[in-house]
Specification:
about 260 residues, mainly alpha
Length: about 260
């Protein structure tokens, strides 16, 4: 790459860097407002759920512990593999049943026999896998095809045994609490970034102020290796940057007030 090409590339990179710096404050402020609104929404959902279910903060923390313990629980690899296979097959059978119903009720009635045959094959496979699962678990956790193909089912391997609250309810509460904590963490990170950006801007303003003060007392360009025109140009550029930084500081101060 030629010298001129390198200079052009560095100039473009510097311009992009300056553009990112100029847009950083508005980006941080916009993300902070968005996180604040989302957090308020999740807090409202959390309070509504606590009121609806009459749950205390201590009970909620207990549910979170239950979910974590369930996620970390060590189960038999065979049980886990078979359970996962059952869930996949049930989802597949339900999809094929819906498609079969749609085909028989629409213009694709000629495809009904083939769809019915595929659905039947899936059900036979599912029946075999369910029988295998039932040989691995206690009687209380055994499954039947009619049960698992209904619309609302909580899988036995997803039930907790410490209280009467099913895992689905605890998982819903867990998801809301985790969303609240993630948004609170995001707000803390954004505040730290805004403080960092503000300090960087203040540091730039101090540097320019000091440089402007030094240039005000310069009568000769020998110290700086510049001619008189160069000194005047440097003074003008420093004053321009100083004013721009002061304007940016005022803008940031307005943006970061929430």
């Amino acid at each position: 790459m030629s010298k001129a090409g390198r200079i052009d590339m560095l100039t473009i990179m510097a311009m992009r860097c300056n553009q990112k710096f100029d847009n950083l404050a508005s980006t941080l402020a916009r993300r902070y407002r968005k996180a604040t609104i989302a957090l308020q929404c999740q807090l409202h959902n959390l309070e509504a759920m606590k009121t609806e279910m009459d749950v205390s903060d201590n009970q909620l923390e207990r549910w979170i512990i239950d979910i974590n313990e369930w996620a970390e629980a060590t189960t038999s690899p065979n049980d886990a593999d078979v359970a996962s296979r059952i869930e996949e097959l049930v989802a597949s059978v339900k999809r094929k049943s819906q498609r079969l119903y749609k085909d028989s009720d629409g213009s694709d009635a000629k495809d009904v026999p083939e769809s019915a045959e595929r659905s039947g094959r899936k059900k036979k496979i599912l029946d075999f896998v369910v029988e295998k699962y039932n040989t691995l678990v206690p009687n209380a956790e055994k499954l039947t095809l009619d049960t698992i193909l209904c619309d609302e089912i909580v899988w036995p391997w997803q039930l907790t045994h410490g209280d009467s609250v099913d895992l689905r309810t605890k998982r819903k509460a867990f998801d809301i609490v985790m969303a609240v904590r993630r948004l609170e963490e995001e707000k803390r990170i954004l505040i730290a970034e805004m403080n960092k950006h503000w300090k960087s801007l203040c540091s730039r303003a101090d540097t320019l102020k000091q440089m402007s003060s030094q240039l005000a007392n310069v009568t000769s360009g020998e110290t700086w290796g510049l001619l008189q025109d160069g000194i005047r140009g440097l003074k003008s550029l420093t004053l321009k940057n100083k004013q721009a930084t002061a304007w940016q500081s005022m803008q940031r101060n307005f943006m970061f007030k929430f």
